[in-house]
Amino acid sequence: MKLIGKALIAQGGGPTAVINQSMAGVIDEARKHDQITKIYGALRGVEGIINEEFIDLTQETSHNLEQVAHTPSSALFSTRVKPDENYCKSIFKVLKAHDIRYFFYIGGNDSADTVHIVSEQAKLDNYEFRAIHIPKTIDNDLLVNDHTPGYSSAARFVMQAFSGINLDMRALSGVYIGIVMGRNSGFLTASAAAAQNFPDDGPHLIYLPERPFIIEHFVADVQKVYLQHGYCVVSVSEGIKDPSGSPIIVSLLRDIEKDAHGNVTMSGTGALGDLLTQAVKEKLKISRVRSDTFGYIQRCFLGCVSDVDQKEAREAGENAVQFALSNSCDGSVTIHRVGDYVVEYRMTPLAELAGKTKHMPDDFINAAGNHVTNAFKDYLRPLLGSNLPSTNRLKAPKVPKILKVNT
Amino acid sequence: MKLIGKALIAQGGGPTAVINQSMAGVIDEARKHDQITKIYGALRGVEGIINEEFIDLTQETSHNLEQVAHTPSSALFSTRVKPDENYCKSIFKVLKAHDIRYFFYIGGNDSADTVHIVSEQAKLDNYEFRAIHIPKTIDNDLLVNDHTPGYSSAARFVMQAFSGINLDMRALSGVYIGIVMGRNSGFLTASAAAAQNFPDDGPHLIYLPERPFIIEHFVADVQKVYLQHGYCVVSVSEGIKDPSGSPIIVSLLRDIEKDAHGNVTMSGTGALGDLLTQAVKEKLKISRVRSDTFGYIQRCFLGCVSDVDQKEAREAGENAVQFALSNSCDGSVTIHRVGDYVVEYRMTPLAELAGKTKHMPDDFINAAGNHVTNAFKDYLRPLLGSNLPSTNRLKAPKVPKILKVNT
After folding, report:
1. Is B309 assigned a catalytic role?
2. Are residues A229 and A209 in the same domain?
3. Is residue A403 part of a domain?
4. Is the ipTM reported for this complex over the cut 0.90?
5. pLDDT one-digit tens code per residue, A171-200
6. By Cβ atoms counted within 10 A, which residue in A116, B302, B355, B362 is the most buried?
7. Contact state of A172 with B14 under an 8 Å Cβ cutoff
8. DSSP states of A144-161
């Protein structure tokens, strides 16, 4: 029997460049099916649900919806709130009152956990509805998925940034340390490797949360590269940890700021970059050492997007509706690489990925733990999308010296 | 009588996204004139000259040259060295030995000063040659010019970054402080204003080196915006100064690092952003306050370029050759806005801009000194180039509440 009622869409966690594509995919697909009577959007994720802050997306024009789909960040706004059981009880009161039978929540592993709790609560309450999680995270840290919407565009940004920085440092020499997002998974930091065009291009070193960070090894690595190439470009994850597993940045910040999920805030401060800069300056006596923390520039930058990412985010949203209507179970839409390059969308039980973190697999990290492997580069390449800009060098030969004043 | 001999091209100072367009413009144009017998490139600016580190650009293929023209950063590498009289005497020995009669130096006001010294030295030495300065700087701080190649692309990057950040902060609330390059001139920091699409979009506040920065006023401004909009996005120049004219960042850095021109290094550290973040957190009790220092990401980002900027950088290079051949004086190629939007390239005596700094004119800054005027937005708009991405919002109406649990 067909489940007839309203659909509700919400967006949770950190925004991405393509999260609105998933929302537009849900709306577009839902409009084609009579059993979905209306499509609501909750403003600010689960917060918007308990506060009944809904907008009627049924009344959104197609053209504007398409423009919003191409706009980065969460058009429905977001939240860091993680519902407990009581919070979920409030959610159900609202869902029932509004006759909402389909719930689509676009988010990361914390949001998947929310969908899972809501789904379980619905069963306990004997309330018939479908709760579907649609993946989204620039960190690419969702289990089961080959990769997640949002990652590929952020990776493209990181790649384009490091391409320019590599040329900048090559022109003026010195050491550059770029701090990239990635609390526990190094996928985004590792994507800087795609900037390596010529064999001696940076990033020459990459440090990930998956391997212990030992500052003496880091300094020795930088020295080696600097002596070889005359400059050194480094990509460092904000989440690098000491051998005990404690994040380096934690010992740096006197007042540790935690979000509602108990996560330490790592972005929005230049402290880690400044620490590493200081270490290189003091120990190697290199005067030109620079660091930037990519921070919030990297996840929603307007106009730097992977078209593959856009397409997949859209399809994930469309598939969510298809699964909700044709499957009689709740779950998460997951992306699976089944060809080179082809993906497939499947329905996965929420318990398999909710609240869990995927890390970089061992074969993506080199033996020294300071760079990636070609296997990772092969994994990343198709995700970055088409029309990827590249860099070139002059090839003109040297002119013989005449005076040789300085030789 | 025609001056016959070789041409030498060099690039100085910080790189830009279009500096190689100017180089390609010189090469392309020079190849059309027999009196220029060969075209050399000096590696690492004036350093490359005294060390005779030349490459023979005459042997560069057209296709590769075009690819390099589209590659950001200085393909001939750069230098921060500023020649004194002795340094210039060494330069002349080399110029004479290689029969170089045309010298094209692409750079900012320090490079213009170098060209000026070299030009004067040539007259003293009675050595017949042409020394031409081609403008380049993301800071847009060259006198006489309406604007300079390199600025428009960096401005486009800053605009696209703030567009994304505005949406990010709008989705999750809080205060964001973006530190943008600009030691003494606020043009680049001010370009964030182009990100304002809807009237309540950020950046809501902009602080420039042209106005004294008083931290109490800054905190009060942030509070006012935050109460009005629920979030606040701020663009701050790295070069903001206290009422005595001393840069805020100087008092923050124990060991002040200066480059060869006596300039304090302001980029490559998150210290200023962290200071302002701390002030807002402590005084306003707002928990979510984030800061990023744009640093080196902004000036050579691969794939974010203004086509207007590309064209003008190219034309500046081409005009440099034309002026060198048809005028019998040295000078700087300057860009003048003569229509809406049309520019003209002129030859300006080096003394008029060498070593000097252009600031934001008063009518580009609002009365409160915390934002720009529409006059500035009108000035900036045509420079950003075509196909500028924009942002959109959902327009769906609110759904009436049923339970009103929380009201």
Report:
1. no
2. yes
3. no
4. yes
5. 999 999 999 999 899 999 999 999 999 999
6. B302
7. yes
8. S-SS-TTHHHHHHHHHHH
Cβ count near B223 (within 10 Å) = 16
| Interatomic CA distance for residues B357 and B287, integer angstroms | 39
State whether B327 and B229 are in the same domain.
no
Q: Which domain holds residue B228?
A: 152-303+360-384
* 3-class DSSP assignment, residue A310: helix
Which of A113, A139, A141, A221 is an active site residue? A139
Asked whether residue A43 falls in the same domain as residue A137, the answer is: yes
Cα(B270)–Cα(B153) distance, integer angstroms: 23
Shared domain for B163 and B93, answered yes or no, is no
Classify residue B406: in a domain, yes or no.
no
- Interface A–B counts its CB contacts (< 8 A) at 297
Residue A133: predicted pLDDT? 97
Report CB contact under 8 Å: A164, B297.
Answer: yes
Q: Rounded to an integer, what distance in angstroms lies between the CA atom of residue A386 and that of residue A153?
A: 11
Same domain, B326 and B365: no
Q: Does any domain span residue A389? A: no
pLDDT in tens, A196-250: 999 999 999 999 999 999 999 999 999 999 999 999 999 999 999 999 999 998 8
Mean pLDDT of chain B: 93
Residue entry with tokens 């329905």: A347
Q: Distance of CA B240 to CAs A30, B180, B219, B236, Å?
A: 51, 10, 15, 7
CATH code for the domain of A77: 3.40.50.450
Same domain, B166 and B141: no
Q: Is A197 left (phi over 0), alpha (psi -120 to 50) or beta?
A: alpha
Is residue B405 one of the residues assigned to a domain?
no
- Candidates A119, A80, A79; CA nearest to A102 is A119
Secondary structure class of A131 (helix, strand, coil) = strand
User: Residue A313: enclosing H or E segment and its boundaries?
Assistant: helix A307-326
- Measure Cα distances from B122 to A354, A386, B35, B354 in Å: 73, 51, 20, 17
Query: Do B398 and A56 make contact, defined as CB atoms within 8 angstroms?
Result: yes
Q: How far apart are CA B37 and CA B29, in angstroms?
A: 13
Alpha-carbon gap: A64 to the closest alpha carbon of chain B (Å): 7
In order, the DSSP letters of A189-230 are: HHGGGGG--STTPSP-EEE-TTSB--HHHHHHHHHHHHHHHS
Residue B321 and residue B371 in one domain: no
B129/B255 same-domain check: no
Interface of B with A in 248-267 (CB under 8 A): 257, 267
Q: Which residues of B touch A395 (CB under 8 A)?
A: 60-61, 64
A184 near B CB under 8 A: no
Residue B52 contacts by C-beta under 8 Å, 6 or more apart in sequence? A399, A401, A402, A403, A404, A405, B94, B98
- CATH number of the domain that residue B248 is part of: 3.40.50.460
Peptide bond into B341 cis (omega under 30): yes
Total count of domains within chain B: 2
Contact A71 B393 (CB under 8 A): yes
pLDDT tens digits, B22-31: 999 999 999 9
**B183 is annotated as contributing to ligand binding:** yes
Q: Is A14 on the interface with B (CB under 8 A)?
A: yes
List the structure tokens of A394: 């002059």
B 267-296 residues with CB < 8 A to A: 267-271, 273-274, 277, 287, 289-296
Q: What is the enclosing helix (H) or strand (E) of A37?
A: strand A36-42
